[in-house]
Prior knowledge:
261 residues, Fructose-1,6-Bisphosphatase, Chain A, domain 1, 2 domains, seven-stranded mixed β-sheet, 31% helix
Amino acid sequence: MARADDVERIREGLVAAAEAIRPYTPGDVAFERKEERGDPVTAAAQAADVVLRELLPEPGEGWLSEESVDNPSRLGLARVWVVDPIDGTREFIEGVPEWCISIGLLEDGVPVAGGIFNPVTDELVVGSAETGVTYNGAPARVSEPTDGAPVTVLASRSEIRRGEWNRFEDGRFLVKPCGSVAYKLALVAAGQADATWTLVPKSEWDVAAGTALVRAAGGVACLVNGEEPRFNKAEPRFPNFVAAGPTVSRALVDDWLRTAP
């Protein structure tokens, strides 16, 4: 089965990238600042990027990575790999165990398979619509809280610190801080949390793998206005992002996120 081969390639890529990162110690690594936005970058992420680029794309397949110079030739290709060698770089630098390796596969701009691996907690989420999603080898689905139960939401630590989540403290949500957005999406796909969302821009490499996983696990990944995001764009960024089970996502899009004060 071709899709099973894709998922296996993703699994192998995650393991290989983790091995490339292993010589570097989270919480005790040097880093530099990227020129364009000042985001931190480490030699660990660059080492993992090299490994993934050697392992994943085959002839005729495109490549988009946070740690690689973008090649616009990907825009004309049907299959494109979208990776973040270390999503949650700040957590990696600070030694917070909420970072991960993220690999997504697009076909005609749609995420069709993905894998996310947190080497510190040893959590591996991989899958596709055709093969299903597994969490550490066990079948996984998105969760749907019962009526009246609070919705468990994974939220950005930095957004919480800036007070951007104060408006959601109304009893409907049990907000838990978490680092990497890809890691948050993986936990939603695995049914370990009910939802996650961000109201600030995110890049395709942040959410491509997680989108494939959440959808394959029976959930919804969309923009705050309900629009389905299209991937492999010339400017690979989205203004915001929401991921949850069908019932919760519908409430978020139709009511909760629109009307929150």
